[in-house]
């Protein structure tokens, strides 16, 4: 029998671009030598309440291993509403649908609002996986620069006008943005709310890090600023606050969209992991969350300062970096003697020398950010942070020596 080649792929497969961040998880797991893992953007084992979760997973509950409701377990939804109220965010069960982490929320958002060819505004740099989800639905992406106050919303009207279309979606990570660590200012939040009203498009408000503020003052969320704005579609996750492996998050959106969100889930995975919701419910109801969050904030504050101190001392004038007031990431741009080093090339050498980061080009579809990189400070203690930055500085010196021909 003569067999033909592989089956023909759908056209959309060209837009399934994957994620260097996710691939780095497997790459790091495969390393047999000691690597400081600045590439990782999540709490590590020591910062996850593992014993508590083990205990709650072990508790018998009726229906625990059944299919659950597509919108999420009713009891758990109530718990989330109460938790959010305690942290100043007023919501209601009919606004919430529980998702398999933030990524499923983003997938549903783009699936519901974006047709092939539609204009989607994103930050530049932006979260790799959010960008690849938009692309997987055929979005035509407009990247808008980020400065120390988040997306430069002032540029937006002109940039959008130059495309000749009106956006279908604006995708923004308002707090301690991944990857830059910057936070969208109050003025810009208000401007964005006005613009999405004017364009009648969805504002995908992806905020996994908002509760992880360790310095400065909270800035109101889009929902707090404009509680009844139906353009705001909020995506949340517990991955960065409790544990990424549990895959629990939620969408908070106008109730008019709830059935469609549920329909999207039913065509995708039927229901969210029931034991994970029950275990998280038990944990949140135990009252341990507040002290855990306070502990995380303090730990991240210390680690951020350890990283900034090491970077300032070891790279000095040859790098500039952001100074996040929360979250997990610092964004670093090489300059001075180090200008011209391509961080994607640096990555391989640095990995061999025992430090991993995410190169800047992973966060854009343009050719920008070859001189930049994302450093995550969450997974390493202060001593390891110092070791990691030393290895990074050594790797940079080696690449520099290769470039200038001074290599021994
Ligand atoms: C901005 C942003 N959105 C969404 C996610 C995805 O979260 P989850 O792991 O819960 O899918 C991440 C994770 O890195 C993120 O940084």
Largest sheet: 8 strands, mixed
Instruction: Give me the number of helical elements.
Output: 13
Radius of gyration computed on alpha carbons:
22 Å
Strand percentage lies at 5-15%
Question: pLDDT below 50 for ≥5 consecutive residues: which ranges?
Answer: none
Count the beta strands.
14
Quick recap of the structure?
By secondary structure, the protein is of the alpha/beta class. The chain contains 13 helices and 14 strands.
Protein model, in words:
This protein is an alpha/beta fold and 408 residues long. The chain is built from 13 helices and 14 strands. It has helices at residues 20-30, 50-58, 74-86, 101-113, 128-136, 156-163, 186-199, 222-225, 258-266, 274-285, 289-315, 343-352, 382-404, and strands at residues 36-37, 96-99, 119-124, 140-147, 150-151, 169-172, 202-206, 232-237, 249-252, 319-321, 329-334, 355-356, 358-359, 372-376. The strands form three sheets. The protein has an eight-stranded mixed β-sheet with strand order 2-9-8-7-6-3-4-5, sandwiched between helices. The mean pLDDT is 95. Pyridoxal-5'-phosphate is lined by residues 41, 101-103, 127, 130, 173, 178, 206, 208, 237, 239, 244, 249.
């Amino acid at each position: 029998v003569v067999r033909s080649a592989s089956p023909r792929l759908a056209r959309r497969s060209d837009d399934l671009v994957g994620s260097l961040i996710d691939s780095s998880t497997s790459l790091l797991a495969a390393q047999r030598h000691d690597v400081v893992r600045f590439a990782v953007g999540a709490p590590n084992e020591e910062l996850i309440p593992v014993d508590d979760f083990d205990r709650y997973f072990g508790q018998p509950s009726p229906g625990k291993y059944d299919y659950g409701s597509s919108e999420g377990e009713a009891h758990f939804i109530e718990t989330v509403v109460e938790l959010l109220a305690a942290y100043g965010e007023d919501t209601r069960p009919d606004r919430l649908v529980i998702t398999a982490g933030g990524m499923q929320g983003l997938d549903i958002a783009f699936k519901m609002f974006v047709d092939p060819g539609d204009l989607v505004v994103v930050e530049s740099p932006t979260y790799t996986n959010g960008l690849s989800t938009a692309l997987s639905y055929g979005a035509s992406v407009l990247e808008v620069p980020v400065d120390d106050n988040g997306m430069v919303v002032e540029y937006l009207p002109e940039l959008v006008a130059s495309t000749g279309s009106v956006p279908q979606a604006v995708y923004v990570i308002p707090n301690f943005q991944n990857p830059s660590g910057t936070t969208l200012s109050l003025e810009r939040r208000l401007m964005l709310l006005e613009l999405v009203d004017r364009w009648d498009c969805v504002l995908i408000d992806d905020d996994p890090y908002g509760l992880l503020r360790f310095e400065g003052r909270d800035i109101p969320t889009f929902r707090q600023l404009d509680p009844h704005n139906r353009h705001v579609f909020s995506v949340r996750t517990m991955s960065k606050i409790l544990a990424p492996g549990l895959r629990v998050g939620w969408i908070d959106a106008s109730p008019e969209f709830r059935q469609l969100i549920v329909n999207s889930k039913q065509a995708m995975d039927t229901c969210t992991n029931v034991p994970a919701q029950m275990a998280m419910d038990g944990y949140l109801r135990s009252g341990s969350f507040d002290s855990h969050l306070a502990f995380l904030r303090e730990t991240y504050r210390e680690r951020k300062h350890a990283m900034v101190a090491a970077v300032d001392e070891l790279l000095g004038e040859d790098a500039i970096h952001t100074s996040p007031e929360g979250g997990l990431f610092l964004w670093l741009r090489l300059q001075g003697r180090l200008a011209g080093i391509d961080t994607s090339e640096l990555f391989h050498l640095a990995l061999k020398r025992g430090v991993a980061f995410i190169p800047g080009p992973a966060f854009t579809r343009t050719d920008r950010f070859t001189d930049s990189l994302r450093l995550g400070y969450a997974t390493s203690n202060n001593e390891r942070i110092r070791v990691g930055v030393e290895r990074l500085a050594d790797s940079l010196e080696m690449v520099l020596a290769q470039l200038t021909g001074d290599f021994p």
